[in-house]
Write a structure and sequence with these properties.
single chain, alpha/beta, five-stranded parallel β-sheet, 5 helices, about 55% helix
């Protein structure tokens, strides 16, 4: 099954190039040119991972990350940045990012991170379903 990912970056050429490289690797890719647009796309649901630029005009990646994780704690977010600092990395991880990669990200490393994100999301969704079943069975006294 193809991973469904949302790529978010305000640099149109970068977004187009990266999305094409992900599609060539068999991924289902949706793109957004801003954090606000990404939040709207996530409302539709179904993403295995979000690859999010850290530095964007308007709402930056950290603010978007916090909102995304608040809306869906199981959502796996990988931040990309051309301006990495230790402080931003620590803040990103504390805010729920799965990882922070520097641009230009090695495509093989990014692909592997996306596959890990998809597996982690499936595990979290599966655990949530299992917990619901246990609650139902307990409430019925079975």
């Amino acid at each position: 099954m193809a991973e469904k990912i949302l790529l978010v970056d305000d640099e149109a050429e970068f977004l187009e190039a990266l999305s094409e490289r992900m599609r060539v690797r068999g991924m289902d890719v949706v793109t957004s040119a801003s954090a606000r647009e990404a939040l709207e796309s996530v409302e539709q649901g179904g993403f295995d991972a979000v690859v999010l630029d850290l530095m964007m005009p308007g709402m930056d990646g950290l603010e978007a990350l916090r909102i995304l994780k608040q809306k869906d704690p199981k959502l796996q977010v990988i931040l990309l940045t051309g301006h990495a600092t230790v402080e931003k990395g620590v803040e990103a991880i504390k805010s729920g990012a799965m990882d922070l990669l520097e641009k230009p990200a090695d495509i093989e490393v990014l692909t592997e991170k996306i596959k890990q994100a998809s597996a982690q999301r499936m595990l979290l969704v599966s655990q949530e379903a299992e917990d619901k079943i246990k609650d139902i069975l307990a409430s019925k006294g079975w």
